[in-house]
Amino acid sequence: MADDDEDVRERLKAALWFAVGKMVDEETLRRNRNVTPQFIGALTEMVWAQIENVAMDLESFSRHAGRSTITTADVLLLARRNNDLHAIIKDFVDETKAAKTKGKGKSKR
């Protein structure tokens, strides 16, 4: 079981490295700059650490609320100190809820 978890972890990290590398490549071409593979590796490690911290915070918020499922309320709580990010997420959540409500109303006719 631990080997399976480690395999999944390594595959996720490899996918993240690929995604970060692709974004960095696009930016370096756009800005006519160069970066080293070490930079991409360090940036990937930093993003990975941030993802782990966010995941732990979201799990803690959910657990504190007595739930085993992370909800949008947990994500909004996580973003509470970044007003711009909070507003973007809140707008997205509100629009999604409105679209679902509108969709349900149409299907009842």
Detailed description of the structure:
The structure is a single chain. This protein has four helices and no strands. The protein has one domain: Orthogonal Bundle (Histone, subunit A), CATH 1.10.20. The longest helix has 30 residues, at 2-31. It has helices at 2-31, 37-64, 72-78, 83-107. It is mainly α.
- Mean pLDDT score, rounded? 94
By CATH, the architecture is named Orthogonal Bundle
Kindly report the CATH topology: Histone, subunit A
User: What's the CATH first level?
Assistant: Mainly Alpha
Ends apart, CA distance between termini: 50 Å
Q: Compute the gyration radius: what is it?
A: 19 Å
The major pleated sheet works out as:
none
- Number of structural units classed as domains: 1
| Helix-and-strand structural type | mainly alpha
Strand content: under 5%
Question: Can you say what the CATH homologous superfamily is?
Answer: Histone, subunit A
Order of helices and strands: HHHH
Helix run count = 4
Q: Spans of 5+ residues with little confidence (pLDDT < 50)?
A: none
Keywords: DNA damage, DNA repair, DNA-binding
InterPro entries: CENP-S/Mhf1, Histone-fold
GO molecular function: chromatin binding; DNA binding; protein heterodimerization activity
GO cellular component, one term: FANCM-MHF complex
Provide key terms for this protein.
DNA damage; mainly alpha; single chain; chromatin binding; Histone, subunit A; Histone-fold
